[in-house]
Amino acid sequence: MQTEQNKTFQTVQYNDPYCTDCSKRQAWIEFMLVDEQNAPVAGISYSLMIYGGETRQGRSGKDGLIRVENLPLTSVILKTDAQELADEMELRPLREGRGPEHSEAKALAALNDHSYRYVVIGELCDRAPEIQKWNYAAFGLPRYHFKSETDFPGIRFSGKDFNRRHMIEICPFRAWSLILNHTRTYDLVNAYNLALMALLSYCNEIMRDPDAEGTDMRPVLDEKNTVSSFFYHACFDLSVPPSFEDGARFYAVTTDVPFRERYRPAIFLDSSQVRDTATLEHKRRMFFVENNTHIIVSWRGTDGKRDLMTDVSYKPVPYSRVENAKAHYGFLDAYECMGRYFKDQLGRIPDAATDKQLFLCGHSLGGAGALLHAADLKNKNPLVYTYGMPRVFTRTAVVAFRDLPHFRHINDADAVTSVPSDTNMDSWLFEAWGWFGIALGTAWTIASAPTLPVQKALPDFGEVYWHHGQPVAFFDARQIGEDRAHPAGKGNSTVHARWRFDSGFKFYLVPGIREDLSDTLKEQQEYLISSVDKNVLGETFPQYTNPALDTVGMSFVAHSMSDQYMRIISNQVIRQINEKNTPEQNRKRTDFISRIDSTDAYPPNVARNNTFLHMESVLGELFRYQHSNNSSKTALTRFEENTREFI
């Protein structure tokens, strides 16, 4: 049996002490090079080095086959041309399932009694290939794809490996990229992936510029849960989608791209690491990262005592970009502090955003930073997702930026989303005695908090703090009813005791979703959309403020990014993939729906809850419509495989 490539192999050297009698050269060996789709890897130059003897050379055939005959029963080492292999394997997509149990090539090898081996390209390369825009001095070689920076030993075969075919499945030379859709319509996968980026911003690391001369990034790759290790290590490790751990492990929803389209550079900025900063300077942190198609900018939330000072510096100050508008003094000054120290680094963002999609995100104080940054970059078409953020702008600025797409997530009674209050919080005390005046003004604002309901009842005057963006509410599901068998008071048969059922699950509500649907989807889901009561939406989600919730009091526990926002959004994603993924939430939901249908349920509450159920159904249909493409389906299947319901 001879193939085209076997006819053209070259003998580079002959010096084989094991074959003094060439009549004993009776062995042969075959290698079938395939990718993860079991497609042949054809036309790749190879060399087969015989131990102590010659080197055979050739190319893999159209079917990916390499067959070499007339071999002594010693040992051989297989290598391929590094550049040819790297360039070719960049073009090959990953299979959907990660791990050998998903390999078609492995199953076929077992069926035909062939040997099977799964390899990364570094195991076959004869040298280090040239990688586009790769800093060898800073990183060496990509660790998952190459086991060594300097050694390229190839793959050795001997003994029983002869007179047999070996299936070699080669891992594509790819990298992970987050699935993000730059759309003005709410996208649940956007919400999850950008929430993960907001959580990632809380990681600490030493600032390093990977492109600066003399930078060595190798040490940070060994650290867990840092911005650099996520983008330069986890996004290169194709054995499993990239993840981040903070109390629980959260996997990103990702697709694979050619390695040249990887994320680079990932820039972490920390004002606390700057030397000679001003007294009482803000300690702000953020990162940004880009690939061929998009840029992600993530601002860290409140983290430390200095940030608390920032949060309570309520003083509304003039906002220079909008005439007569004002912004929260603490948030604005904290945002501008990063520009004072990192002007050049931040200047890279608008430059890159000229031809790339721009996403900004943040939790808590980080949400304030993301919104302020987006306002500065409004002409770059930013898309903003925030989580548990406070109010930043007064009315005039919010109206000026009303066309800036921003989805603002609120977890029921999260206390931080209610500050500063949606009233005019200006005071002459803020103008007196510098920082001392700010402290007095803040103290006065806090002391007068009990009068806020009265202040809100008065006509608006001056610049009132408003919320920006479309609300996305995680609403505790409750049903109220009347116990008609038991009067509330003695001898009074017309007033009945009320009952209240707290279900333990949360509605996931996107009130603006009806207006955002495409005409096609509106036609397909006409019944569901018509079932959404506009009056209920108007009452529950007044414009420019928080939803009208029936939760008594506020909660700082509800503000946690990892324990609350991330888990709620994660549960919603896996539920939309398949309802069977969330059995505990399904049980609570079913129990709750049964209470809605109770004959003694309070009618206005029934109308509201039915509207919310229909809204969730519309969200589900939108999710399936947005992610019906093959890339999203594959990414969500991988996400589902690794993610479990949070209870």
UniProtKB/TrEMBL annotation:
One of its GO terms (biological process) is lipid metabolic process. Coiled coil: none annotated. This is Lipase family protein. It comes from Morganella morganii. Residues 296-422 form the Fungal lipase-type domain.
